[in-house]
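User: Need the bound-state model for G3I:
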Amino acid sequence: MTAGATRRSLLAGVAGLAGLPAQVMARDSTAAGLAALAARRGVDYGAAVEPENLARDSSFADLINRECVSVTPENHLKWNILRPTPDHFDFGGADAVVAFAKARQLAVHGHCLVWHEANPAWLAAGLTRQNAEALLNHHIGKVVGRYAGHVGSWDVVNEPVERNDRRPDGLRRSLWLSSLGPDYIPLAFEAAHRADPAARLVLSDYGLEYDDEPWMVEKRGSLLALLADWKRAGVPIHALGIQGHLIGSRPPAFGTGLQNFLRDVGRLGLDIHVTELDVNDQQVAGGQDHRDRIVADCYRAFLRAVLTSSRLRVVTTWGLSDRYSSKQDMFPRPDGAPVRPLPFDRELSRKAAWHAMADAFSVR
Ligand code: G3I
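Assistant: Bound-state model below.
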């Protein structure tokens, strides 16, 4: 049994609260952490983490331990950090996250093996049609092999679809596509499966969430066709990851379009993971309480929609507390107020977003 499975079976006891009267459920909702609440719906809840924050901030580390059943290294499994030079692997940060998780019986989700971003300069400069397949196989074999039995699931390919690149199949023109063609995706999944046949293998992408955004609706169509082809060809892909980087300043249009898309993905025999959930509040106007309510409503609406899928297995937020969110650097607010995209505030107190997530996990 894996570390994560042990923790999950503990939470199953809490999950047994389902079926109690609503008032009792509501009281217990505030006592339990998000992982215990999500477990009632058969969902593993976790968060992306940076090892430096776990090491220097014990209150934050305790919060992760209380709220989560899994952790995802936010950056330390990316090529730019793992592979500073062609011959040297720096596993320090990723090892620290895995050790943290092991000590607390948390599962670990690996992010990510193949991406068009966060690559070292030497890779882009040196990748050729001749060496690409060997490089891909070597990297994936070494990284997945090292963590076999400790990292239970992987984002094998991250963000491979880009409509703006105008290929008929919807695939992104990336360094891997230029050197290997579309086969880089099956090759990556096969290499990961060889290195750890027990690992759950995920393809993760963004821009799949909103029903009222034409390019996202189009992207769903491209992805569905690609996934169907790969499944038909026997590619060992087990789940679609929907990143879930939501935008607080737009209407939460997570309706039948999203639900039907998830149903169709499920019919291909794939599970659904929400891999990077947060709510960007950069353009949300008003006072803090008002903004927090808007962000919370967005979490609630999205989770209710994805929870209609019987194949939803994992929800991961991209961080847990506003104390540590990459949104602060990537999408700072024009009024200079700190961003508040996550379930906990900078003081590690629950926000309206936490309660909205708890509501969504509790309602059937
Ligand atoms: O570690 C250095 C630090 O020493 C330096 O002081 C600082 C100055 O900016 O930079 C730090 O590195 C940054 C790193 O995040 C850690 O904070 C990098 O510059 C920055 O590029 C890196 O950004 C990450 C980004 O991916 C690119 O890898 C974000 O943290 C991370 O949240 C983001 O995550 C991506 C997912 O992987 C894929 N989906 C989109 C998502 C962004 O929302």
